[in-house]
Amino acid sequence: MLGFVVKNSGVLSIIQDAGRFGAFNLGLTNGGPADALAFNWANKLCGNELNSSAIEISVGGLQLTAQVDCVIAITGAPMPLTLNGKAKELWQSFTVKAGDNIQLGFASVGVRCYLAVAGGFTVPHIFGSSATVCRESIGGINGGKLVVNDLLVCQQMSTVSCKNIKLWQLPEYDIPTYSNEVVLKTVLGYQHQHFSVAEKQLFFSSEYKIGKLWDRMGYRLQGRPITADIDGILSEGISYGAIQIPADGQPIVLLNDRQTIGGYPKMGTVFSADCAKLSQYRQGDSVRFKPISIENANNLYHLNAARFNRIKLIRCN
């Protein structure tokens, strides 16, 4: 078996596919890419199915050596990328030859990048998915983050197919931008009745900062405390993007690796595309919330999906 050898695993690099679904009853959360849009583009640039296994690189520092000829693409936060010491662009596919060295620097803005290879990485599926959830020690390689000398198996491409393959890039105007401020569209949940009108108005008019506790499980925010008229609820299922309000009144937005059940009252749920945006922010960045109806959220979801399918990639060879 051949593929890529990990020479430096960086801050946190893990294998992800689209996620593990249907296992909440076993206490297993979804996992999957924190920024699904960047993940999907990495796979699409390689001509893959969108559920193909790729590498999620947090902050940067990943170094790989190729053992095969193949095609890869890297998308997401602007991390400096080099191939054999020469600068390469993100958001496009390019050929890699056996013996080549790939190195990612560190993002000055944004958090996560995605490295996909044509045909996807060959990773065993556990409960229907290769998604890594380190807290549960499941998925990926040995249930955890990549470490030095890990082998990421992928398909070998013949010399002829490498020469004839079509390489693509995303149009510049369609590449997402990354900053230090984000507005999260939020659908109120049924427990919003436990927050007074004044508390809800303050919640949606206040600016929060991302605190020191932020990861794939969720983002704990700091700002004007929000008070509910109850201290807790019976534990119930937790959705992606749920906004929990614990006893200290500081909101927590729950993401891919969230717990499956919880007992804090919830203001509502962040729109899924905005959860992906939030995952590209870090400690000290600014967060605001904006109310949106469930009907508008549904419309936006379908409009975003249609736009993704409508965008035409540009040939770059």
TrEMBL record:
Name of a matching Pfam family: CT_A_B
The keyword Hydrolase is annotated on this UniProt entry: yes
Coiled-coil residue windows: none
Assigned keywords, A-Z: ATP-binding, Hydrolase, Nucleotide-binding
InterPro entries, sorted: CT_A_B, Cyclophilin-like_dom_sf, PxpC
Presence of the UniProt keyword Metal-binding in the record: no
Start and end residues of each Carboxyltransferase domain: 25-307
PANTHER family to which the protein is assigned, alphabetical: 5-OXOPROLINASE SUBUNIT C, CARBOXYLTRANSFERASE DOMAIN-CONTAINING PROTEIN
UniProt name for this protein: Biotin-dependent carboxyltransferase
Organism: Colwellia echini
Phylogenetic lineage: Bacteria, Pseudomonadati, Pseudomonadota, Gammaproteobacteria, Alteromonadales
